């Protein structure tokens, strides 16, 4: 069944005709060419595909594109102000070496931003470790990711984003 | 995933009609279980009926007797509800421990109870607190609702509309989560209810079950020590790569002790 969908992606109107079974992540990657959102598993466990849907982080591999009809979606591509000026959380990952291969990073950053906002920009190591239960990293051992998010929370607050 | 026809009705009646009309219709709430199942081609419905357009299925009502949660209410909203935290704190805590943040942002109580995964958390709360499941056709007591592995009293196309939990004087839930999925390897919900203490176990068996021996021990004395010596037989419990039946049986007593201690 082909259905037309429209939503707002990174602040711009986006629409297309998709099959009912098309996942949001496929719509983003294959229809819109936004390949920053990754797919790392088929069991909804790894979090590489996390995007923001109407203000809540969500696994775009476990949402149909039609379920996002009318939604405001933000992907990793929608965070940086410009190629020169990264989002404070992205900058914190760079600064604190919060990535190695980078595959999990888009999902980590998206989950981190949601986590920081929900906790009123006040996060502890413990809150971050629990908050990342839906994101798996095969490389870093998490230590630097946690450091980056704690630091990123403070820079987000300072930058007012 | 095989393709299907997609529907987004605005009322429960229209949703029921859409499922009925389809040759093999499936309801969808959060999709956090249904979509992975479709991706693995473990199900092949002709039609998917999305309940997201039925706005009167969302919401939490709290009064002096208990808490009623609409079927489409997300785990994250139960977890963060100050009203639920006041009326039945153990219920809010349970919802906050389901899966991970992203699963809680989309998964719903209606989908969770309808699915009746042997390792799901909510069934333990429903059975321990003596909750009632309301559908578009009737009311079903929790104990008559959960029938077996992934099996409930729901008829084909019957829609869960809400779940009502009576308050308890004491209650707590403790789970030993699978470290990857966060599903319960074993979860124990204990409650001091109007009809006496109740102990409900999820994750250990094919479906949620009560441990009468623990309930009797707690009726004599509400303390962690009272359940410490009650052993649950391993026979018939789940055994998989994560834990043997014997290990799960052992965990039931450990989690029950912790839950009673946490309930105070
Ligand atoms: C990575 C991961 C970790 C998880 N961890 C946990 C955990 O720790 N504990 C836990 O309890 N759960 C866990 N879950 C499951 C999660 O809670 C699901 O949200 C829940 O089981 C299903 O709810 P849903 O709203 O997503 O339902 P859906 O996936 O939409 O539906 C599930 C089933 O119920 C039927 N259905 C849905 N709504 C209704 C209704 N109103 N009436 C009748 N039938 C209906 C559907 O047809 C389908 O068969 C996890 C899931 C994932 C992906
Ligand atoms: S790709 Fe979505 S959770 Fe793994
Ligand atoms: S940096 Fe490689 S998976 Fe996380």
Considering the chains and any ligands shown, give keywords for the structure.
heterodimer; A: 161 residues; alpha+beta; Ubiquitin-like (UB roll); DNA polymerase, domain 1; 2 domains; five-stranded mixed β-sheet; 5 helices; 34% helix; B: 264 residues; Uridine Diphospho-n-acetylenolpyruvylglucosamine Reductase, domain 2; Uridine Diphospho-n-acetylenolpyruvylglucosamine Reductase, domain 3; five-stranded antiparallel β-sheet; four-stranded antiparallel β-sheet; 25% strand; globular; binds flavin-adenine dinucleotide; binds FE2/S2 (inorganic) cluster
Outline the structure in words.
The complex is a heterodimer of chains A (161) and B (264). Chain A has 2 domains: 2-78, Roll (Ubiquitin-like (UB roll)), CATH 3.10.20.30; 88-159, [2Fe-2S]-binding domain (DNA polymerase, domain 1). The model of chain A has no long low-confidence stretch (mean pLDDT 97). A 5-stranded mixed sheet of chain A has the order 2-1-5-3-4, with helices on both faces. Chain A has 5 helices and 5 strands. Chain A is α+β, with helices and mostly antiparallel strands and 161 residues long. Chain B is α+β, with helices and mostly antiparallel strands and 264 residues long. Chain B is 34% helix and 25% strand. Chain B has helices at residues 12-21, 34-39, 75-79, 82-87, 89-96, 101-104, 109-115, 122-129, 142-145, 212-220, 224-228, 245-263; strands at residues 5-7, 25-28, 47-50, 60-62, 66-70, 132-135, 139-141, 146-148, 151-152, 160-166, 170-177, 184-193, 196-202, 209-210. Chain B is globular and about 55 Å long. Chain B starts with a strand and ends with a helix. The mean pLDDT of chain B is 97. At the A-B interface, strand 4 and helix 3 of A face helix 2 and helix 6 of B. The structure holds flavin-adenine dinucleotide and FE2/S2 (inorganic) cluster (2 copies). Flavin-adenine dinucleotide binds next to strand 2, helix 2 and helix 7 of chain B.
């Amino acid at each position: 069944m082909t259905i037309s969908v429209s939503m707002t992606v990174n602040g711009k109107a986006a629409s297309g005709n998709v099959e009912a079974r098309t996942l949001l992540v496929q719509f983003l990657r294959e229809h819109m060419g936004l390949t920053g959102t990754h797919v790392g598993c088929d069991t909804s466990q790894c979090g590489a595909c996390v995007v923001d849907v109407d203000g809540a982080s969500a696994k775009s591999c476990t949402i149909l594109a039609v379920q996002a009809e009318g939604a405001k979606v933000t992907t990793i591509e929608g965070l940086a102000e410009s190629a020169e000026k990264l989002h404070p959380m992205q900058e914190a990952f760079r600064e604190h070496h919060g990535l190695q291969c980078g595959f999990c990073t888009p999902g980590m950053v998206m989950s981190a931003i949601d986590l920081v906002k929900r906790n009123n920009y006040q996060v502890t190591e413990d809150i971050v470790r629990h908050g990342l239960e839906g994101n798996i990293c095969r490389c870093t051992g998490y230590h630097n990711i946690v450091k980056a998010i704690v630091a990123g929370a403070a820079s987000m607050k300072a930058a007012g984003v | 995933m095989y393709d299907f026809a997609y529907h987004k009705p605005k009322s429960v009646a229209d949703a029921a009609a859409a499922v009925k009309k389809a040759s093999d219709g499936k309801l969808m709430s959060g999709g956090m279980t249904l979509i992975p199942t479709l991706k693995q081609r473990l199900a092949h419905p002709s039609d998917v009926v999305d309940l997201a357009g039925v706005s009167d299925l969302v919401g939490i009502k709290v009064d002096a007797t208990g808490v009623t949660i609409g079927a489409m209410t997300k785990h994250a909203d139960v977890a963060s509800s100050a009203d639920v935290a006041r009326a039945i704190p153990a219920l809010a805590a349970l919802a906050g421990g389901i899966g991970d943040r992203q699963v809680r942002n989309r998964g719903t109580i209606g989908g969770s109870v309808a699915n009746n995964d042997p390792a799901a958390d909510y069934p333990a709360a429903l059975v321990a607190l003596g909750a009632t499941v309301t559908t578009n056709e009737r009311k079903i007591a929790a104990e008559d609702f959960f029938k077996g592995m992934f099996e409930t009293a729901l008829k084909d196309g019957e829609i869960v509309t809400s779940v009502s939990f009576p308050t308890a004087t004491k209650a707590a839930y403790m789970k030993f989560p699978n470290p990857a999925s966060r599903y319960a390897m074993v979860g124990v919900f204990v409650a001091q209810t109007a009809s006496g203490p109740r102990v409900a176990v999820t994750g250990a068996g094919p479906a949620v079950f009560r441990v009468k021996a623990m309930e009797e021990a707690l009726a004599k004395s509400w303390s962690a020590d009272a359940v410490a010596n009650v052993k649950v037989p391993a026979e018939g419990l789940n055994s998989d790569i994560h834990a043997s039946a014997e290990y799960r049986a052992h965990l039931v007593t450990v989690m029950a002790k912790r839950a009673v201690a946490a309930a105070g």
